[in-house]
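step: validate -> pass
step: tokenize input -> pass
step: predict -> running
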Amino acid sequence: MNAMEPTSSSAHKSHDSLSRDALAVLQPGFTGTTPPDWVLRRLGEGLVSVGLFGRNITSPAQLTELTARLRAERGDLLVAIDEEGGDVTRLEARTGSSYPGNHALGAVDDTALTRQVAAALGARLAACGVNLDWAPCADVNSDPRNPVIGVRSFGADPDLVARHTAAYVEGLQSAKVAACTKHFPGHGDTSVDSHLALPRVDADPELLAARELVPFRAALAAGTRAVMTAHLVVPALDPEHPATLSRRILTGLLREELGYRGVVVTDGIEMRAIAATYGIERGAVLALRAGADAVCVGGGLADEETVLRLRDALVSAVRAGELPADRLAEAAERVRELASWTAQGAETAELSETVARSETVELSGEAGRGEAESDVAEGDVAEWDEIGLVAARRALVRHGGPVAPLREAAYVASLSPVVNFAVGEETPWGMAPELRRLVPGTRGGTYGESAGSAGELAERVLKEAGGDPLVVVVRDEHRHDWMRGALDALLAARPDLRVVEMGVPRSAPRGALYLATYGAARACARAAAEALADPAARTP
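step: predict -> pass
step: emit ->
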């Protein structure tokens, strides 16, 4: 029988049974720091998953209370979060992550370190009641113009990305937090953000196999419990449908050719790549029909009405013969099985945290990449996870010098681009707070593209800096002409300035001192601040 045709069981499924299955395949978000009544009701009606975002979290204690309240309604609940560490953090959205992201880990290229960072992050999530992480990002960042992947990728080399993706999956799942490797079949070779439009990857099948698919094969071999789809068109695989809605890609390639048997989760169905072309209801039906098992929604739409619209659309599609009931039931059962796997491991978080802190990576006495010291100051444990800060210090790369360390108050000018939706505008970044902690009196200002011409922007920075030592922080300078022009003008006036690149370091190093952090996490800012400041100023 053709899998696209309705089966005889479709007609015999009760409405309640279909409704429970339809709710089971949804992963909705909600607003607020306590569960709304509608979420608690739907958990009793078949909902198996919820997704949490920065808006839901104020502290580890609050998050733990939130997840406990949810599990009082359903013990085997999947609590998902988009926590990559680095630039994309929900757990520490208000402060910036104390773990560096993928690009920093790829720069160090120590898989034991990557595994340890992921295990530590997984233990922290598990301790708060989170058991599904929409991470890691397995995309090969092959297009330097990419506006949405960048430092979320381990790098541009498929083999490097593959070995670190596998290590990350292993580390995360050692804490019984399910990994959801993304964005299949690869989002690295795009210059369009799928939150805003529908990207296209124009690679032939041979290149896709040798580049995009290599990390996903590694993730599958490492046992990733879930895979997230990409909202993009890959004409070599399916010229008509985005990957999320493509049976050729999700069933033909991922299931049949690669042999994957775990849960397939869509990227946010409300992203414009799907919502603006198909609509969220139609998109959800087509995704399930193509082979997806769970529909992520709630980053932008986080209300009961959206959940009911999607539930009813799936039930109606089964009744109309458009979506086989057996396909919906199969998807729902996969989600329930994943929930059961995480529930069985809920008591292992303490053991996982011990493992995370006792692997073979040295925690002190090793500089690694760059010249920042890598010993952990006594007292740091209360504020930082040791391994996150060590990883950031090892990733730091230094060019230029010798330059005297900063012993007097400096001015930090952050040239700030518009961040993508995945990062979120609420997450702070930059150097000033961390440098001020080491060099009291340090001031800072943020400057965007709207600040005027390159010359005008430079004049504003120079006026604010006065005679203070000047640190200019950039983020993906190579992608922003205005940023490059402003830095050129500043260097012409102040060749003594120090430059810190907190994005992908593709531009030639410039300035009296150039630091590359490979990401904008708080841990990366701390490592760079230590490299700029007088070592004597370093305090716990």
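step: describe -> Residues 11 and 90 are 43 Å apart (CA to CA).
step: cleanup -> pass
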